[in-house]
Amino acid sequence: MVAIARIGLIPERAVELVGAALNLIPTPVPQALFAPPVARVLHVGVAIGLFAHLARGGPRTTEELARELELQPAGTRLLCDCLIAMGHLRARRDGRVALSRRSRRWLDPDSPRSVARYVEHTGTYWPWWEQLESLVRDGTHVELHDAGADDASWATYIRGQHELARLSAPEVARALELPPGARSVLDLGGAHGWFSAVLCDRHPGLRATVVDLPGSVAVGREILRESGHATRVDHVEGSVFEAELGEGHDLALVFNLVHHLTPEQTVTLLRRVHAALRPGGRVAVLDLFAREPGQRPGGESFLGLFFHLTSGADLPRESELRAQLAETGFKAPTSRGITRLPAQTLYVAERS
Ligand SMILES: C[S@@+](CC[C@H](N)C(=O)[O-])C[C@H]1O[C@@H](n2cnc3c(N)ncnc32)[C@H](O)[C@@H]1O
To answer: Do residues 11 and 150 both lie within one domain?
Structure first.
């Protein structure tokens, strides 16, 4: 995670290496100058359909791209130059540009590992980051989840989350051993329901209930209808703090939700989860975690700042989660890192 935070000049020649070692290169300049366009050329590449067009239609000159996508030639050429510099496009000897082999996997919207919708959604973070100074000066934050149920942002948000879940769900489902005969999973803030769907694929007889806010549920239902999982995974609209959660569930998933909650809300939620599980049932918490006090902050600090800006919450610390689980009646959890999404850790704790 630390390397994610490192945007700067990467010395390529001996003289630059020496300059960097002697601290002669003004590192704040490349950080301030390059970080915004690095993000923005990706957002725009997805938004104008550039990656999809190259993936489906094959290599093109930038003039052809401009004509076919109804763009301006100069801007298209310069955007492509930046994407070539980043390694996402490849300049061919015949003067045409192509999606690079490595980036096709991630940026072709039809790839099963595409993260194009996720990248597109990060484009909507732009106005939020403009609020950063207000957050630091007077504590004002925005509320990501307050958008109206029919706001268009839910579709890119939840489809982007679904793309990330597609990457890690098989590994997560393998890690969540369920006893033979397990029947019921509760997926809190489960959105697309993909983690539940993959669990149901692995365990015949299992059904899942996803509880989420209405805007998220509308998109999640669509995703599960498209994939044929709607018969095994139900969606319930409502807040995880108010909705009827039922009882006797074998497993409850709390995935990427705690980082949107205050510590008090997390405790309240874990108590509700405890009451909804059968004796011996388990809660699984998948999330990003802040470093413990005294440890040097790394790239996760940017996510911590982002969640504080967009939810007024903080990344949980692992020690904090362990204490909250103990306080709410769970045994000591097991934990494991997720290799397909390296920043995430999965905690599983049994109801005591
Ligand atoms: C970052 S997404 C995670 C989605 C999914 N669990 C995953 O890991 O991919 C957070 C989800 O929590 C939902 N959420 C946030 N606050 C909620 C609340 N109070 N009640 C129900 N869902 C909530 C959001 O609508 C969103 O779908």
So the answer is: no
234's CB contacts (< 8 A; 6+ apart) are: 207, 208, 209, 210
Please count the structural domains in the chain.
Answer: 2
Atom of ligand 1 nearest to the CA of 161: 9
Q: Domain span at residue 302?
A: 143-350
Q: Decide: 193 in ligand 1 pocket, CB within 6 A.
A: no
Centre of ligand 1 to C-alpha 209, Å, is 14
**CB 260 less than 6 A from any atom of ligand 1:** yes
Cα-Cα end-to-end distance for the chain: 34
CB 33 within 8 A of CB 39: no
Count of beta carbons in the 10 Å neighbourhood of residue 52: 19
The answer to whether residue 22 sits within a structural domain is yes
What distance in angstroms lies between residue 174's CA and the mean position of ligand 1's atoms? 22
Residues 40 and 167 in one domain: no
Instruction: Select from 255, 257, 262 the residue to mutate for testing ligand 1; criterion: most ligand atoms less than 8 Å from CB.
Output: 257
Is the CB of residue 311 below 6 angstroms from any atom belonging to ligand 1?
Answer: no
Residue pair 16/9 in contact by the 8 Å Cβ criterion: yes
* Residue 263 resides in a domain: yes
Do 201 and 252 lie in one domain? The reply is yes
* Integer Cα distance of 81 and 79 in angstroms: 5
Q: Is 212 in the pocket of ligand 1 (CB under 6 A)?
A: yes
Give the mutation target among 260, 307, 341 for probing the ligand 1 site: most ligand atoms within 8 A of CB.
260
Residue 273 in any domain: the answer is yes
Average pLDDT for runs of 10 along the chain of length 352: 62 86 88 93 97 98 98 98 97 98 97 97 94 96 92 96 97 93 97 98 96 98 96 97 97 97 97 97 96 91 95 95 98 95 92 93
Say yes or no: 200 and 308 in one domain.
yes
Residue closest via CA to ligand 1's atom 3 equals 256
